[in-house]
Amino acid sequence: MDTADRLIESTRELLWERGYVGTSPKAILQRSGAGQGSMYHHFTGKPDLALAAERRTVDEMRATVDALLSGPGTARERIAVYLRRERDVLRGCPVGRLTMDPDVVASPELRAPVEELFTWLRGRLTALVAEGQASGEFAPGLDPADTAAAIAATLQGGYVLARASDSVEPFDRAVSGILALLGPTP
Amino acid sequence: MDTADRLIESTRELLWERGYVGTSPKAILQRSGAGQGSMYHHFTGKPDLALAAERRTVDEMRATVDALLSGPGTARERIAVYLRRERDVLRGCPVGRLTMDPDVVASPELRAPVEELFTWLRGRLTALVAEGQASGEFAPGLDPADTAAAIAATLQGGYVLARASDSVEPFDRAVSGILALLGPTP
DNA sequence: GTCTATACGCCGATAGAC
DNA sequence: GTCTATCGGCGTATAGAC
């Protein structure tokens, strides 16, 4: 892993832990072991480095989630696998977290990767819900896009509830709750 | 409104807009029109002032939501009124937002009001779901606490999706989605 | 490519006068 | 109660040597 890579990886960690506003170049340098000069040689500044970190996180997330949602099993089973996927729940979602960052939302460049990921996710889930309706797993009256948004929102909101309580319990309950609402386990 | 009040109100606004990490005493002073000396006369420092602001926001939120959930109508109707309540969706939830703040979550004092609100909310929704089951509105097989967590999470996650897209649409879809899953509108 | 030096304003607070 | 002065450290770079 070269210096630019180490800078990006350290930035990814810090963005996840502390957000954009809470992450300073100095903290990135300390964590990565790089020097001031290296950082400003490889990147134009904090926004540029954050963008590189965001892109890597989003690309990785999309690949991981895509693999889960494209796996074996019924539509319902794949949604359950996705929602119950092993996570460090109290750390929150490294992408969703950025939506609470005022400087990210205010910058079209910094918000773009976040928007892309969630738009893709909702589309992917929409198709999966429609597939489940075709196979008779889900009620035919459901709107696939609305249902997909509710599933994605439950996950993101589950992180909020868990962090509020410093406990995984509300997250697990929310996931169980949405899965139960989707229909009885066959 | 006296000086202490103006300091608290300005802090509430800034915590909502920029979070705890992103809010500086200087910004609070500028917005409130108070001077340095006033602030440190009325409050011991930034955490103390933030705590006062949090408490006021949480108290107000609880009163508002309690009124909606205690209003007229069936359990389902009251949940719908709550979820569809007029909101400036893109601003996000002033309480949920704080869960993404590392310094808030790391401090038992600063996290306490957030935890209290969400614990209260889930309890209130749990009772309402149980009420709806008793009246035959909701499926008897649902776990009320899990369902309540899913409802609360959908709302919080709806904000995340909306801010990611800079659009209210995913929020509205998520709300419609969870309401549809709760059962057909009579 | 990486290092050190330098800059200048903001952060969060304390001190002491009025 | 409120004001101004002062403080050491951090945030976010730029400059120029090696």
From TrEMBL, chains A, B:
InterPro entries hit by this protein: Homeodomain-like_sf (IPR009057), HTH_TetR (IPR001647), Tet_transcr_reg_TetR-rel_C_sf (IPR036271), TetR_C (IPR011075)
PROSITE patterns documented for this protein: HTH_TETR_2
Keywords, alphabetical: DNA-binding, Transcription, Transcription regulation
Keyword Transcription recorded: yes
A Pfam short name: TetR_N
Organism name: Streptantibioticus parmotrematis
Superkingdom of the organism of origin: Bacteria
HTH tetR-type domain boundaries: 1-61
Family annotation (PANTHER family): HTH-TYPE TRANSCRIPTIONAL REGULATOR LMRA (PTHR47506:SF3), TRANSCRIPTIONAL REGULATORY PROTEIN (PTHR47506)
SUPFAM superfamilies reported in the protein's UniProt record: Homeodomain-like, Tetracyclin repressor-like, C-terminal domain
DNA-binding region: 24-43
Record protein name field: TetR/AcrR family transcriptional regulator
